[in-house]
Amino acid sequence: MGLSTHVLDTMHGCPAAGMRVTLFALDGEGATPIKSVILNADGRNPDGLMIAHDQMRVGRFRLVFHVASYFSDRGVQLPEPNFLQEVPIDFGIAQAEQHYHVPLLVSPWSYSTYRGS
Predict the structure, then answer these.
(1) Distant-in-sequence, close-in-space partners of 5: CB < 8 Å, separation ≥ 6
(2) Beta-ladder partners of 65
(3) pLDDT tens digits for range 5-36
(4) Ramachandran class of 108: left when φ > 0, alpha when ψ lies in -120 to 50, beta otherwise
(5) Domains of the chain (ranges plus CATH)?
(6) Residue 44's beta-bridge partner residues?
(7) What backbone phi and psi angles, to 5 degrees, belong to 70?
(8) Which of 24, 19, 30 minimizes the C-alpha distance to 71?
(9) Model pTM greater than 0.90?
(10) What is the pLDDT of residues 31-81, one digit of tens each?
(11) Are 62 and 26 in contact (CB under 8 A)?
(12) What is the DSSP letter of 9?
């Protein structure tokens, strides 16, 4: 069923269009980049899934959301150093036949995530 993500900018009350998101596969102490995307107007990967159904596998992964550059590009005045530079979310896929959705609600000072549907 694949892996998807969706980001909502809670400061502005809108999807985080233009935010860069990078997906990594985790193995031991290493992280191998799989895909990097710029979110579309709906705050989603313009290509659809981050991992297609036929490429899903059991394992550990990391999504890195490039928060500081997104808010800076929106003209938000942030202190240096920024409170949140990047938001990494490490998660596991235990059942490759299921859909995994990792949404992010984010502001320059806080974030929340959960396993969505």
Answers:
(1) 21, 44, 45, 50, 63, 101, 102, 103, 104
(2) 21, 87
(3) 999 999 999 999 999 999 999 998 899 999 99
(4) alpha
(5) 3-113 (2.60.40.180)
(6) 6
(7) -60, -50
(8) 19
(9) yes
(10) 999 999 999 999 999 999 999 999 999 999 999 999 999 999 999 999 999
(11) yes
(12) E
